[in-house]
Amino acid sequence: MADAAIGDGCPEAQELAKWLALYGQLRVGDASWAYRSFADLVAEHGRFYPSAPWPQPDPPRPGQCFRAASEWADRAGWTYVEGFVLAPPVAPFTVFEHAWCLTQEGRVADPALPDGMATGYVGIPVSCAFRREQQGIRGTHAVFTSDPINPLAGVNEEVLRSGLVQPGPGRSPV
Q1: Any idea what DSSP says for residue 26?
Q2: Closest listed residue to residue 54, CA positions, set 2, 101, 7
Q3: Of the residues 97, 128, 152, 153, which has the maximum number of CB atoms within 10 A of its CB?
């Protein structure tokens, strides 16, 4: 995993690690795939981020996390991140697939959930070029996982099958 094991440290990170292990059991591909699930991809490449207040006056856009995060990444020059969020008020499924941004200072900026709903995040930051390329190929705002606005796009089977592209000139996904 990036930087440190997701389950190390605070209770929020430990809870996210527990849910990643559960979601990792929802397999898409076979044993030949680099990652058998979106959760496996995040467990391998994701990192934990603590929650932070939304830094803009615009209201949250629940149910539109992939679109809103993509738009804010373009608008504010922030980094788009895709992974999972820990949101205890949404019981019984307190961890779910989600997208948000990182500000230039590396703080979470979540344009979809109201302040105080999320207590932690684990995800993979992606470059603007990689995000736009994958969104164009898939016809959805989600880069790796399924987007409820376009469920027919499903998960990004190509990334799960082949793995993340290797960093190169202009093509660094993380």
Answers
A1: S
A2: 101
A3: 97
